[in-house]
Design goal:
The chain is an alpha+beta fold. The protein has helices spanning 2-49, 81-87, 98-105, 111-123, 169-188, and strands at residues 53-62, 71-78, 128-136, 142-155, 158-167. It has a five-stranded antiparallel beta sheet with strand order 2-1-5-4-3. The chain starts with a helix and ends with a helix.
């Protein structure tokens, strides 16, 4: 009988230890969830107040024996479409995401160079690249954007990218005025 009682007592202690461990795990899980929610709220606040467009993408390169350069498949999204819309207001059509409208807004003259810049950075193993390009917003206003992109290799021919775009329109306008003034001065001489 004492053996049975001792065995039962031992089993009760094991169950109590397991219950305490489970409660500790639940508390840890709740704390981790709260920290993740706080970090997400802080990131959303930064994105909303930073006056920039932040995007992320997974890119895959598909090659064939006939085409060693291959094609690049982009799955790109703004981190926060509402913040992106405040930064660069675009007409997002029914069934679209912000990126679809953003692609349409980019200058046809700039797109080939943009593809060349990004693809070259990916193929050569760079950890980042930068470029400037033009977009037209929903009101027809031209915006110059400066884009800084950070690259992380996930596997061969597969990457994770994060891009940060800032509006440099005023700087470009000043540069154009300075260039025009220089040309006028040169023509006057």
């Amino acid at each position: 009988m004492q053996e049975t009682l001792d065995m039962l007592q031992s089993r009760v202690e094991e169950l109590q230890d397991a219950r305490r461990a489970t409660l500790n795990l639940l508390q840890d899980h709740d704390e981790i969830r709260k920290k993740a929610e706080q970090a997400e709220a802080e990131l959303r606040h930064v994105i909303n107040t930073a006056q920039c467009l932040i995007w992320h993408a997974t890119v895959e390169r598909h090659t064939t024996p006939e085409d060693s350069h291959g094609s690049f498949e982009w799955d790109i999204n703004a981190f926060d479409e509402e913040a992106a819309q405040r930064f660069l207001p675009l007409d997002v059509l029914a069934g679209e995401i912000y990126n679809d409208a953003w692609d349409r807004s980019k200058s046809d003259e700039d797109v080939p160079r943009m593809h060349e810049t990004s693809e070259s950075a990916l193929i050569t193993g760079k950890s980042q690249y930068s470029q400037e390009f033009r977009c037209v917003d929903q009101d027809g206003k031209l915006h110059w954007l400066s884009e800084n992109v950070f690259i992380e290799s996930l596997a061969e021919n597969r990457w994770w990218l994060v891009g940060i775009c800032t509006d440099i329109t005023e700087r470009k306008q000043v540069q154009e005025k300075l260039q025009q003034a220089k040309e006028n001065a040169d023509a006057a001489n």
